[in-house]
Specification:
Layout (H helix, E strand, L loop, with lengths): L2 H32 L2 H22 L2 H11 L7 H27 L5 H26 L3 H25 L3 H18 L17 H27 L4 H17 L1 H16 L2 H28 L1 H5 L4 H4 L2 H4 L6 H16 L3 H26 L1 H25 L9 H14 L3 H17 L23
Helix pairs in contact: 1-6, 1-10, 2-5, 2-7, 2-8, 2-9, 3-5, 3-8, 3-10, 4-5, 5-6, 5-7, 6-7, 8-16, 8-17, 10-11, 10-15, 11-15, 11-19, 15-17, 16-17, 17-18, 18-19
Length: 460
């Protein structure tokens, strides 16, 4: 695949994510305005639980199906997705049965929220598998349509909730519908299953990647669950949840880059993989740093769409936005390592990071409250970035990326020790210039990913 083609695919993926994530983000704003802060806090905790269930119910099939589809083109489109869905049906049925049984036996106070979380996780697992196979086969426009459909359903549902009023259950119903309905709409496209292609899907690698995804989800979303478990005020959790949803929205560019280059990384040579990893990481960090600079110029303006209830306390949770910097590095690094068959190593590494993150949350939240959760999450993401970049260096997939870490750590310390967001913006902008002058952040690294770059001008 030429760099020109990669650039066009990146453009389509970015546009689709902007459309879908943008619509989902607007829907969150509408939901935050439609329900009380206490109800919104309950909603974000349930969404966190659904996010942990998603990799469990996926079982690692998204990456394994993408890898298999990128290496075999002689089978009908979405054949691997149909096969993967049949394999996961027993697991999906068991989890749904557990949710209903918990409600019947009174084991869960809000069993309907648990059932909706399971349905959302099942729908997301199926949609991600569809998108992975479509992108592996070069059908980026169809994958973009899939992404956009989720955002449209979420936006329509949130608008209805704002007009009619509701609670956490209604908001969670919208969250589940935005994933289940598009998955059902794509069912007619699935061909009959082909048992003979099961051997082409790397099941062991997929299982390892699935376990890695579960551990990642635990350390990424455990803070929200622990805040609820440790009896922090739901209104405070709601503000924390708003900041976390902003972080998810800011991940559009890193996610687009990781999604675009994964099929190519899986099928490329070592030298091409190294070049793609360097290019993707440079572009990912640069876009995230500039976005954070803009946000810290006026944090209250960023939180204003959610209402004065949240914007008046913006500076309390604004430092959480900076975790997008280590995420922009570790997301590309993890994608590269998974595509290059380092699944076992990734699982061990993520397990260490999860232990650090969850342990710090348990220690700091009772003492510092939501500020302790921010500090623990920052530390966990910095550890994840450090370990993934060290692994990349040892695997000879990237050598100079470690230069980012001291800068990112310093900016995080500045944000936690000062109440002046403007100082954080200045530090971010200055450090980005320093990284560029030092040669760590090089614009030429991003050229193979740009759609206007011709193949002849691409570095070999």
């Amino acid at each position: 695949m030429s760099s020109n083609r990669t650039g066009r695919n990146l453009a389509w993926t970015t546009i689709s994510l902007l459309g879908s994530k943008g619509a989902v983000f607007v829907s969150i704003i509408l939901i935050a305005r439609a329900i009380s802060p206490t109800q919104f806090g309950q909603y974000v905790v349930t969404v966190a639980a659904a996010s942990i269930l998603m990799p469990l119910l996926d079982g690692g099939f998204v990456n394994s199906v993408t890898r298999a589809a990128s290496r075999r083109e002689d089978v009908p489109q979405l054949s691997f997705t149909a096969t993967a869905a049949r394999m996961r049906l027993p697991l999906w049925g068991c989890m749904l049965g557990f949710g209903f049984l918990a409600g019947l036996l009174g084991l869960a106070g809000h069993w309907e929220l648990l059932v909706l979380a399971v349905l959302a996780a099942i729908g997301q697992a199926q949609l991600d598998t569809i998108s992975g196979e479509l992108r592996a086969r070069g059908r980026y426009r169809l994958a973009a349509l899939r992404e956009t459909s989720c955002g449209c359903v979420a936006l329509c549902g949130a608008t209805a909730l704002l007009l009619t009023g509701g609670n956490a259950t209604g908001a969670m119903l919208i969250f589940a519908a935005a994933r289940v309905l598009p998955a059902l709409a794509f069912l007619p496209m699935l061909p009959r299953t082909h048992p003979e292609i099961r051997g082409d899907i790397p099941w062991r690698a997929g299982l390892t990647m699935g376990l890695t995804g579960i551990v990642v989800a635990l350390y990424v979303r455990s803070d929200m669950l622990l805040l609820s478990w440790l009896k922090i005020d739901p209104a405070v959790i709601a503000r924390y949840g708003i900041a976390y949803n902003l972080v998810i929205a800011f991940q559009i560019m890193p996610t687009a880059i990781a999604t675009t280059i994964f099929p190519r990384l899986a099928a490329s040579t070592g030298e091409e993989a190294r070049r793609l990893a360097r290019s993707g990481m440079s572009l990912s960090y640069l876009s995230s740093a500039l976005l954070c600079v803009a946000c810290f110029l006026s944090p209250r303006l960023v939180f204003a769409p959610f209402g004065s209830t949240y914007s008046n306390h913006a500076t309390q949770v604004a430092p959480l936005l900076l975790i997008i910097l280590p995420i922009s590095l570790s997301q590309i690094a993890m994608t590269t390592l998974q595509a290059r068959n380092y699944e076992i190593l990734m699982l061990r590494m993520v397990g260490v990071v999860a232990a650090v993150n969850i342990g710090l949350n348990l220690l700091l939240i009772p003492v510092l409250g939501v500020r302790g959760a921010i500090l623990a999450t920052m530390t966990g993401e910095l550890c994840a970035a450090a370990l993934t970049l060290l692994t990349m260096r040892r695997s000879r997939l990237a050598s100079s990326m470690l230069g980012y870490l001291p800068v990112v750590a310093l900016i995080c310390v500045v944000s936690m020790t000062t109440s002046g967001p403007m100082l954080v913006s200045i530090a971010l902008l200055g450090s980005t210039i320093v990284l560029w002058r030092a040669g760590v952040l090089t614009v030429t690294w991003a050229r193979p990913l740009l759609p206007w770059q011709s193949p002849a001008a691409s570095p070999v």
